């Protein structure tokens, strides 16, 4: 038994991982849209309950709150696990759990978002420099192309490279970033097809 007196020590990692998944399953795009009286983001645009799709409603504040919520929910459980001196593998699993919760949320029949903002939050907890490098990449690609999806794909593809230099001493974290990047690219597979076909919708593009 641990100091709490009722939770076996062997169950503590499970509690952290399950809690992270449940937090990740909260879709702030849906919650915020309801609060603002906007259409369910899953029924408009790309059907993705993320900040980019909420922005298409014209409500910049709603989109900003969605982005903030998705980033913070990725950062918070990982940061708490690290502050609680959890073992590295536990932190890694917590990171993946909150990310997968966003992708496949139990509260929404496992139909979630693509995970860009949540992955950014996770990376910020693991390494602020890693998150900054990924964010700068996203901004740079988006500024040139005006395609949010392309920016996300490029940033996700380069994140493991950045992690190799910044987290090479932390194998579990490096593997976590690699898995998240692969899932991010996989979740954007329909966007990749549209980009190749020239039918992807971009901001400021007809």
Q: Encode the helix/strand succession as letters.
A: HHHHHHHHHH
Helix count equals 10
Indicate the mean pLDDT.
91
Number of strands: 0
Cα distance spanning the termini: 62 Å
Overall geometry: globular
Major β-sheet annotation: none
Give the proportion of residues in helices.
55-70%
Binned strand content: under 5%
Task: Give the total of domains.
Answer: 1
Question: Based on helices, strands and strand pairing, what is the structural class?
Answer: mainly alpha
Radius of gyration: 17 Å
| Low confidence ranges | none
Main features:
single chain; 206 residues; mainly alpha; 10 helices
Description:
The protein has one domain. The chain is an all-alpha fold and 206 residues long. It starts with 11 loop residues before the first helix and ends in a 9-residue tail after the last helix. It has helices at residues 12-24, 28-35, 51-55, 60-83, 88-103, 116-126, 128-145, 148-166, 171-187, 189-197. The mean pLDDT is 91. The protein contains ten helices and no strands. The chain is 68% helix and 0% strand.
SSE inventory with pairings:
Elements (H helix, E strand, L loop, with lengths): L11 H13 L3 H8 L15 H5 L4 H24 L4 H16 L12 H11 L1 H18 L2 H19 L4 H17 L1 H9 L9
Short description:
The protein has helices at residues 12-24, 28-35, 51-55, 60-83, 88-103, 116-126, 128-145, 148-166, 171-187, 189-197. With 206 residues, the chain is mostly helical.
């Amino acid at each position: 038994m641990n100091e709490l007196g009722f939770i076996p020590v062997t169950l503590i990692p499970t509690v952290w991982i399950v809690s992270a998944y449940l937090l990740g399953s909260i879709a702030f795009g849906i919650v915020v849209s309801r609060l603002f009286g906007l259409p369910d983001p899953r029924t408009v645009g790309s059907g993705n309950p993320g900040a980019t799709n909420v922005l298409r409603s014209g409500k910049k504040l709603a989109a900003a709150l969605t982005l903030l919520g998705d980033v913070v929910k990725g950062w918070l459980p990982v940061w708490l696990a690290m502050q609680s001196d959890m073992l590295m593998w536990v932190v890694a699993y917590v990171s993946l759990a909150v990310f997968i919760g966003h992708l496949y949320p139990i509260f929404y029949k496992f139909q979630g978002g693509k995970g860009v903002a949540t992955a950014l939050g996770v990376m910020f907890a693991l390494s602020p420099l890693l998150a900054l490098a990924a964010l700068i990449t996203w901004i740079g690609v988006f500024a040139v192309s005006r395609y949010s999806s392309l920016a996300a794909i490029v940033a996700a593809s380069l994140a493991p490279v950045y992690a190799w230099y910044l987290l090479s001493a932390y194998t579990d974290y490096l593997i976590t970033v690699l898995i998240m990047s692969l899932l991010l690219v996989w979740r954007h597979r329909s966007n990749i097809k549209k980009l190749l076909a020239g039918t992807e919708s971009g901001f400021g593009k007809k």
